[in-house]
Amino acid sequence: MSRDRATADLVDAYREGGRIASCDVQFVQFGKRTRFAGPIRTIATREDNALVKRLTSEPGSGAVLVVDGGGSLRTALVGDKIAGAAVENGWAGLVVYGAVRDTAGLRSLDIGIKALGSNPWTSAKAGKGSVDIPLHIGGALFIPGHWLYSDEDGILVADGELP
């Protein structure tokens, strides 16, 4: 099953035909799970994590939440409480184009977490942003319902679950 295959192996198998794309952002790994995959859900927000908290508190059903925080490192969009809720609710992973905090706690959680970096500062809680919209990050298009595959080598997006 492709969920357990290395991203490099997936590139070798699917590079032709346009089914996959690679995200060229060099994310840092924060979660205990270094290899994760699942259908994509998305949030676009900036320095406000209310939507992130709301979605991670709902059943994840093995999905990966991609959060476009505009690349801001001024405030954290995910900490140990939000990531802990994601674990409890069955999310496979979180990819944050922004900052996280509570990094020591994140390393102990059995979930994939990638982000640009960390900052102890908390974010706003106004609920501003959009949910389940296509996101362009690092040369890749993250479309809700498409699939994300992540490991130590990087992140791939695919038009569906790969066999």
Provide a short characterization of the protein structure.
This protein is an alpha/beta fold and 163 residues long.
Distance between the termini: 6 Å
H-E string: HEEEHEEHEHEEEEEE
What amount of the residues lies in strands?
A: 25-35%
Helix and strand content put the structural class at alpha/beta
Structure summary, number of beta strands? 12
Largest sheet geometry: 10 strands, mixed
Number of helices: 4
Rg (C-alpha, Å): 14 Å
In terms of per-residue confidence, which ranges show pLDDT below 50 for 5 or more consecutive residues? none
Helical amount among residues, as a percent range?
A: 10-25%
Shape: globular
Mean pLDDT: 97
Q: Your description of this structure?
A:
α2 runs parallel beside α3. The longest helix is centred in the middle third of the chain and has 9 residues. Strands 1, 2, 3, 4, 5, 6, 7, 8, 11 and 12 form a ten-stranded mixed sheet that branches. The protein is built from four helices and twelve strands, in the order αβββαββαβαββββββ. The chain has 163 residues and is α/β, with parallel strands linked by helices. Helix content is 17%, strand content 34%.
